[in-house]
Amino acid sequence: MAEGALGTGFTRSRMALRRGVISLTVCVIFWEIVSRMHGWTGFRPPGIGNLPAPTAVLHSWLAVLGDAGYWQSWLLSLGRVCGGFVAALALGVPLGLFLAINRIFNGIVFPVFEVIRPIPPLAWVPAAIIFWPTQELAIIFITFLGAFFTITINVLAGARAIDARFVRAAVALGASKARVFRSVVLPATIPSIVVGSTVGIGITWEVVVAAEMISGASKLSATSGGLGHFIWSSYLGGAYEQIVVGMVSIGIAGYLCSAGVRRLGSLATPWQRQR
Predict the structure, then answer these.
(1) Which of 2, 58, 198, 200 has a CB 3.0–4.6 Å from the CB of 150, allowing a cystine?
(2) How far apart are CA 234 and CA 163, in angstroms?
């Protein structure tokens, strides 16, 4: 049975990979056709007709692969994402759990939390630049905000969704509050932590790049601004193919980070892999 399940899982993974490759191939072909349609027919499709063709983007990408500044931008943005995400995870998970299990704390903190939560992370950029001593800390703080609220809300919802019968059963068997938390509440909340983390890591990439672009990153050197600065400096220099290179780089980085979080989540919730 185990071998059959393993074979089925492998087949599904292979089919998913095949579908993904086909989807990306069709997308790139469509992009190439639309980008070159103006030269072929004189008609420029609105919205995407001005995009550089994939072949031109690939040529530009190959040209920057040997540039140390490009990889430095990757590392800087990745470091900021990881710093903000880890901080959001370290603060968001305990806060979400405590909001769920303590009514007094919830009544005091949650209204303030709900007032602050709708504020877009990028709206914090001016305040972050003013109050944090360095621009680097300001960008990491903005990145932290991108994931913090999502993780906290998911943890809170997950903890509140726990069937009360499980808690009552544990108490009836003599479990202390600490034991109930460790053995019932925390394990049942792990799937919600995983979901919040997966969504949050994607938001951090959206936020960090925008923060790098609008928080004065243009004042940094070309090798120290991150992928957001890479895109902005490419725009200022008229290198439109490199703009798309930066965008695709962000997409790849975000996908890899999300896949890593999903993988860790799968390891932390082995019971869900059997579904």
Answers:
(1) 200
(2) 53
The CA distance from 210 to 47, in Å, is: 21
Question: In angstroms, rounded to a whole number, what is the distance separating the alpha carbons of residues 188 and 191?
Answer: 7
Q: What is the pTM of this model?
A: 0.82
* Residue spans per domain, the chain: 1-51, 59-274
- Calculated CA dihedral for residues 92, 97, 103, 107, nearest 10 degrees: 10
138 near 128, Cβ under 8 Å? yes
At residue 217 the predicted structure's pLDDT band, cuts being 50, 70 and 90, is very low
pLDDT category at 215 given cuts 50, 70, 90 is low
Top-level class of domain 59-274? mainly alpha
Instruction: Annotate 179-222 with DSSP letters as a single string.
Output: HHIIIIIHHHHHHHHHHHHHHHHHHHHHHHHHHHHHSSGGGS-T
**CA-CA distance, 143 to 97, in Å (whole number)?**
22
pLDDT exceeds 50 at position 257: yes
